[in-house]
Design goal:
It contains seven helices and eight strands; from the N terminus they run βαβαββααββββααα. The chain has helices spanning 18-24, 41-54, 85-90, 92-122, 170-179, 184-189, 194-203; strands at 9-11, 31-34, 61-66, 76-81, 131-133, 136-143, 146-151, 157-161. The chain has a four-stranded mixed sheet with strand order 1-2-4-3, with helices on one face. Strands 5-6-7-8 form a four-stranded antiparallel sheet.
Length: 207
């Protein structure tokens, strides 16, 4: 979705007033303020905290602070508008179905991981990819408490916390939704990526 976002509206003078931002920032159109070159990262963080407090009444406005980088050495603030309550609640049943599907698959794969992959890894045995499961073929890559599983036939990918399969991470959940062909409505609604997904989970009271 990032490639479809129009160029941010750059604000090059003083930090904008909250009411200006409320009018300026709409779905898919962010506002970006670039600090003067001499500004420090701590000053940018302080400004971000002040702006968040001033915009607290608008819980769908997200303020992000970014440090400088090569092409833009000064820190910056970006304000984005997240998915609205009405749209999030309209998709609540679909989100709950997605989470239930994700968790069911995560439990199944985590159990197989603990049964087949983990013992081989602890025994320093060479465990070959891919892993055949109930007629499906899964490639896997474990890293710490997580394991990435990819269905070689459907291109579905799911990142699983093998110690806590119920754990939901907005990034991993959105990636799973994108990799399937069943939740295009959820993926399309998350115009602001994981930030929208996190808000939808919060509004749906899904831990």
């Amino acid at each position: 979705m990032a490639s479809s976002r129009p160029d941010p509206r750059l604000i090059s003078d003083d930090l904008p007033a909250p009411n200006t931002l409320r009018q300026l920032v709409v779905r898919g159109k962010e506002a970006k303020y670039v600090f003067p070159a001499q500004a420090t990262w701590s000053q940018a963080l302080e400004a971000a905290d002040r702006l968040r407090a001033e915009l607290a009444a608008d819980d769908d406005l997200l303020v992000l602070a970014s440090p400088g980088f090569h092409s833009q050495p000064a820190p910056s603030l970006t304000v984005r508008r997240l998915i609205g309550v009405d749209d999030a609640l309209r998709l609540r049943d679909r989100l709950e179905a997605l989470v239930a599907e994700y968790r069911a698959l995560a439990h199944r794969l985590a159990a197989l991981f603990r049964l087949h992959i983990e013992p081989a890894d602890e025994g320093d045995e060479l465990y070959q990819n891919p892993l055949g499961v109930d007629g499906e073929t899964w490639w896997w890559h474990d890293h710490g408490e997580h394991c990435l599983f990819a269905d070689l036939d459907s291109d579905t990918e799911i990142e699983v916390n093998t110690y806590c399969p119920d754990a939901i991470d907005p990034y991993f959940l959105l990636h799973y939704a994108k990799s399937t062909d069943r939740y295009g409505d959820i993926h399309t609604a998350c115009l602001e990526g994981i930030h929208d997904m996190a808000r939808m989970l919060e509004l749906a009271t899904i831990p």
